[in-house]
Design a protein that fits this description.
The strands form two sheets. The protein has an eight-stranded mixed β-sheet, with helices on both faces. Helix content is 39%, strand content 17%. The protein is α/β, with parallel strands linked by helices. The structure holds adenosine-5'-diphosphate (ADP) and magnesium ion (MG). The site of magnesium ion has 5 residues, from helix 6.
Length: 427
């Protein structure tokens, strides 16, 4: 059976000619609807009568959300641009359209691209290459001084409810990585309200991640735009601040956030993302793939990250929460293998050898090892919070800072400077 295709290329002088040529039976493609705008295309997609859409870059109101909805409706998309219009091609790529062809490619080539898009064949060897093909699939990021374009690693710092210390670990890791000489971007993606700006003593009036996600949805986010939206704390440390108000979470659309992280890989060798705790999906909403979900952004980050850290508290209640959260994560994203970091470790709430007890509880109930233990160090965290500075600045010799630096060194693959605590390097 011929592939049933929607077109939304109205306005272009070549539209009728192209549709006529495409419609010829020997291309294996039938144009079932010629849509005049995005709204009509989405409505047509929802009817389930077509498997693919052919659209032009100048289609009004085309954004990442529309592309996501087409994908959710099971409609594969091929984009068309004027020959040589690289900017338009890049914009379509950023919106998530992998296959983009010059409009003069000919009906045979376009029909072939539509068939491949439907079959999910990787787009390769087309005239306009997909920049995402260059992206890495790193198991563990080992970013060093300057990343080749698009090759930076992404570490998501996640964990259960109950304030185990995700933000403390995310900020500490980013700061220490920067001090090790790794260009680092810290992203506050907490959909329940971001505090990274406050923790770092930044005056947060910037649109931050929400602004970046918005620009990404409009296909307008590139490296320069991301650079403008980020604070430069030091040359090696940039920060994309979070939601100033928790009720603005719908601004963090998953697709937009994922695109921001793709761009972040070009900007920084290491991107550290401070995430929310929740991963459960909204049951009542799951029939409606277009409705925004609060946890969607968290899931998008966890899916995109090369490494997911699960920060756990160290007392029995916190460990129980982590075991539950790890189970939920496994249900929702089984392909993610979280790396567990136990924070706030102290004698007291756990009897016997603290590390051994915690390690064996997590091994028994969550089938996971502990990658690192970070000590409870209230003196250091209080001093840092009071000053709006990082641990390295305010408590350089503290046990927590030292442990975070070791963690940053092992995650980035950059050794700690010899000479230990006194041999600090400004990043
Ligand atoms: N290792 C630690 N020792 C002492 N206090 C800590 C430690 N880690 C985090 N805290 C404190 O616990 C509180 C919650 O930490 P935070 O990083 O904001 O948690 P989350 O982001 O998971 O909600 C903060 O006051 C923080 O300073
Ligand atoms: Mg937090």
């Amino acid at each position: 059976m011929a592939l049933q295709v929607f077109t939304a290329v109205t306005g272009a002088p070549w539209e009728s000619e192209l549709v006529g040529a495409l419609d010829r039976v020997d291309h294996g493609v039938t144009v079932v609807r010629r849509c005049v705008d995005v709204a009509e295309l989405l409505a047509a997609a929802a009817t389930g009568t077509g498997q693919a859409a052919l659209l032009s870059a100048d289609l009004r109101r085309l954004d990442g959300e529309a592309v996501t909805r087409l994908a959710a409706a099971g409609v594969a998309v091929v984009g068309l641009v004027e020959p040589g219009d690289q900017r338009a091609a890049e914009r379509l790529h950023r919106l998530g359209i992998i296959r983009v062809l010059p409009v003069d490619s000919g009906a045979e080539v376009i029909a072939q691209a539509l068939r491949e898009a439907v079959d999910g064949v990787p787009a390769a060897g087309h005239d306009i290459a997909d920049p995402r093909a260059a992206l890495p699939t790193l198991g563990v990021p080992t970013p060093r001084e300057e990343p080749p374009a698009g090759r930076g690693g992404v570490v998501a710092v996640w964990g259960p409810t109950g304030a185990p210390g995700r933000t403390t670990v995310a900020v500490g890791l980013a700061d220490e990585a920067a001090r090790l000489g790794v260009s680092t971007l810290l992203v506050d993606a907490d959909v329940y309200g971001g505090v990274v700006a406050q923790v770092l003593g930044l005056l947060d009036e910037s649109p931050g991640l929400a602004g970046a996600a918005r620009q990404a949805a409009a296909g307008a986010l590139d490296e320069d735009a991301l650079l403008r939206l980020a604070w430069t704390v030091r040359p090696q440390l940039r920060v994309l601040t979070g939601l100033a108000r928790a009720d603005r979470w719908p601004e963090l659309r998953p697709r937009g956030v994922a695109t921001v992280l793709e761009e972040a890989r070009r900007l920084a060798a290491l991107t550290v993302v401070d995430c929310s705790f929740c991963v459960e999906e909204d049951e009542e909403l799951s029939f409606d793939s277009a409705a925004p979900r609060r946890n969607g952004a968290t899931l998008a980050v966890l899916e995109a990250a090369d490494t997911v850290l699960c920060v756990s508290g160290a007392d029995p209640v916190a460990l129980q929460r982590s075991i539950r959260a790890l189970g939920e994560l496994r249900d929702v994203l089984p392909e993610v293998a979280p790396v567990v970091v136990v924070n706030q470790v102290r004698r007291g709430p756990v009897s016997g050898d603290v590390r051994q007890e915690i390690g064996s509880a997590l091994a028994r109930f969550a089938a996971t090892d502990v990658a690192a233990f970070l000590p409870a160090d209230r003196r250091a965290t209080d001093a840092a919070l009071a000053a709006g500075r990082t641990l390295a600045e305010i408590a350089p010799g503290s046990p927590l800072r030292t442990a975070l630096r070791t963690l940053a060194a092992s995650l980035t693959g950059v050794p700690e400077p010899a000479g230990g605590r006194r041999a600090r390097r400004a990043g």
